[in-house]
Amino acid sequence: MGNRLWIEGVVFIILGLIAEIAGSILKVLNATKRPYTGYAEAKVVDIIPVERDRFAQARFRNRQAAVFEFFADGKLIKIVDTKDTYPCPYQINQRVRLSYDPEEPEKYCVVGKEQMYIIAVLLNALGVVFILAGCLLFLKYALRYNL
Question: How far is CA 86 from CA 68, 71, 114, 127, in A?
Fold first, then answer.
């Protein structure tokens, strides 16, 4: 019975370390797949109607575009969203995370809550829980014997 607690504690600690490593790898992979290296939190300051080109296959003649405002290297940048959506998926004063090109801040992409990032955070949390459980089992094993 005594050795069983020690073995279970070690197994939980090893599983926790594996989960932590897997979560860290997923976070790195998620960060490297983005096309740009600059990050900013933009604010939607306006939603404007933009005329579609005449060859667009849509029911509406206009689309709604969000105007993003953010700071890149101390400069205020205002850009109009290029997504062809109607209605606009954003609201005025909404905060949006952007990834942008530091050389040309007008080149950007909206960073959402990617599934891989969410899985990485969950793996890191699970790793912490497993490591704590392993430590508690090891302490329970150690307290059984008078040192």
Answer: 17, 27, 23, 42
Question: Is the peptide bond preceding residue 89 cis, with omega within 30 degrees of 0?
Answer: no
Q: How far is CA 46 from the centre of its chain?
A: 25
CA distance 115 to 121: 10
Distance of alpha carbon 128 from alpha carbon 132, whole angstroms: 6
Instruction: Enter the pTM of the model.
Output: 0.55
Q: What is the pLDDT of residues 32-41, one digit of tens each?
A: 676 777 777 8
Of 13, 34, 57, 54, the C-alpha closest to 107 is: 34
| pLDDT tens-place string over residues 50-64 | 776 665 555 556 778
The 75-80 sheet, strands edge to edge:
75-80, 62-72, 38-51, 95-100, 108-111
